[in-house]
Amino acid sequence: MNFPANLRYTKDHEWVSLDGHTATIGITDFAQRELGDIVYVEVETIGKNLEAGAVFGTVEAVKTVSDLFLPVGGTIIELNPNLAGVPESVNNDPYGEGWMVKMTVNNPADVEALMDAAAYEAVVG
Fold this sequence. Notes:
Elements: E1 8-9, E2 14-19, E3 22-27, H1 29-35, E4 38-42, E5 49-50, E6 55-61, E7 65-69, E8 74-79, H2 89-92, E9 101-105, H3 109-112, H4 117-124
Antiparallel strand pairs: 1-2, 2-3, 3-9, 4-6, 5-8, 6-7, 8-9
């Protein structure tokens, strides 16, 4: 499995990439493998200010639906427009074309407090 060193991770299997106050969020390679073939991503929280740990959407795979948890507090500003037509990009490229949302982070230091790649890899084994 792939866990890029430039990202931060959560115990709920989301990853975060920070650029200034804007974070890009998706699910990890581990999570997409556990879910199986992803057929739909639903996010109805665009424009909402949410606390860390809040559910910001769901991802639907062939056999299950799973909640998506916000790694840090902030406002969701964008849903990946490609997911509507190509949800399988989450399986094929979870850290690239398969990103899920972008958000404005309330406190960028909160991202640094998340797990690095080595800590996350230790969690998932």
